[in-house]
Design a protein that fits this description.
Structural class: alpha/beta
Oligomer: single chain
Number of helices: 19
Strand content: 5-15%
Length: about 450
């Protein structure tokens, strides 16, 4: 791992020096710190690729340096060393992006291998993109295109409309745009327009002055004022009532907001990102959405396809959620049974990534071994009829050769995949969710050239 910069944070000098020798021998450029202030200085001045940090730094909490990195957009993977691991600490650390724990006392070779694996994993997932996109999981062509589009869009201040079914990860895209923008050091404020009653939504957006209405016993700033200099994400914008749409249009046009009950207007500077699972063009034709607002919002459109249309991403997402919930629930589950893997390939995921995450969370909670077994999943997950919806009834009048029928279908899909990818076997295999070896075997079996 020559050339990579590693930061060792530990308040014990002898232990710090021991780790410095270990990683210097492994070829790393090693930086060391004994406390949080000195760690921050190193991170500000050096490009740190990975950090190994003690959870207890004298009177300081090692988690505070992880929080500081998160707040200041330093996307550094942390491995925490501790003799006092707890479920609450694990829960907090996963949310902050800590990749793993090592419990003292530990084997030095295991720690070196762990660091090497993290570095290698980040290299594989980089794909020419940047760490601000790490939360957007997937390697399919469509996800890679979305990542590149996010990078380009983030450099501008244009209004963005993110479209896609519920559960596809629209807020993750919005947050990535903010992190990559020139506003990343300022606030990111998100609000779900469908989750708040209409009478409360107005005050959440625009704020109010004390005495503006019954119960308004203090001044409240709305998110447009709170996000001054930063970004605002309005999720499910298609559910916003018409009377608020007109107010929103004026705020977008003039960058001026007037809290309820206020006598004067307030200037505010924000970047607006919205999302919807509805077809806003159809909504405008039906009179449910203002056409002038729609055109203001739809300056840049990013569409996220449903998970069933990018099945090549399911494996990576599954591994991500498995690791996440194994840490949260303090379990050592690292494998997935063959039957579960096959069901994942075929399941329709009508609830998209959110449904996949819920399934894996439930399975990890139920599992008692180190492998996700079918018994930890709900029964419907393995029932193909439920997976694909109701099938047309048909009458089988004559005997058939089922193997021949399956062969014809497989050959048809292999030829279609090769045609779509211009003969690229690797991409064709990915489209069919097959390994390269399995795809080549089937090509030979059906004499496909």
């Amino acid at each position: 791992m020559a050339g990579y910069n590693i930061l060792i944070i530990d308040d014990e000098k002898s232990f710090r020096e021991l780790l410095e020798i270990l990683f210097a021998d492994e070829g790393y450029n090693v930086f060391t710190a004994s406390d949080i202030p000195s760690s921050c200085e190193i991170i500000k001045n050096k490009k740190i690729d990975i950090a190994v940090c003690d959870l207890v730094l004298g009177n300081e909490d090692g988690m505070d340096i992880v929080k500081w990195c998160k707040q200041h957009n330093h996307n550094i993977p942390f491995i925490l060393m501790t003799a006092y691991a707890s479920s609450s600490t694990a829960l907090e650390s996963v949310k902050l992006g800590v990749v793993d724990y090592v419990t003292k006392p530990f084997d030095m070779d295991n720690l070196a291998n762990m660091v090497s694996d993290v570095i290698s994993s980040r290299e594989e997932n980089d794909d020419g993109c940047c760490p601000e996109l790490d939360e957007i999981k997937g390697k399919s062509d469509v996800i890679n295109k979305i990542k590149k589009y996010i990078i380009d869009v983030a450099k501008t201040d244009s209004t963005v409309l993110i479209t896609g079914e519920s559960g596809t990860g629209k807020e993750l895209v919005a947050r990535a745009i903010h992190r990559l923008s020139g506003r990343s050091s300022r606030a990111f404020k998100a609000i779900n327009c469908s989750a708040i009653p209409y009478d409360l939504l107005e005050s959440e957006l625009f704020g109010y002055k004390k005495g503006a209405f019954t119960g308004a016993s203090y001044d409240k700033k709305g998110i447009f004022e709170l996000a001054d200099g930063g970004s605002i994400f309005l999720d499910e914008i298609g559910d916003m009532p018409l009377f608020l749409q007109s107010k929103l249009l004026r705020v977008i046009q003039d960058k001026i907001v007037q809290p309820l009950g206020a006598g004067k207007e307030i200037k505010t500077d924000f970047r607006l990102i919205t999302a919807t699972n509805k077809n806003l063009e159809d909504q405008t034709k039906q009179g449910n959405f203002r056409s002038d607002l729609y055109y203001r919002l739809n300056v840049v459109n990013i569409h996220i396809p449903p998970l069933r249309e990018r099945r090549g991403d399911i494996e990576e997402l599954t591994r991500h959620f498995l690791k996440k919930y194994s840490i949260l629930m303090d379990k050592n589950i690292s494998q997935i049974s063959f039957a579960v893997n096959e069901a994942l390939k075929n399941y329709p995921f009508k609830g998209n990534v959110r449904e996949l995450e819920n399934l894996i969370e439930r399975a990890v909670a139920m599992e008692k071994t180190n492998k996700l077994l079918p018994s930890s999943f709900p029964r419907y997950f393995f029932e193909l009829e439920d997976n694909y919806g109701e099938q047309d009834d048909f009458i089988l009048e004559n005997p058939v050769d089922l193997d021949k029928i399956v062969e014809k279908i497989e050959k048809k899909y292999i030829l279609a995949a090769l045609k779509k990818t211009n003969g690229n076997q690797s991409k064709a295999a990915e489209l069919l969710n097959l390994s390269g070896r399995a795809f080549r075997y089937k090509m030979g079996k059906y004499n496909v050239k």
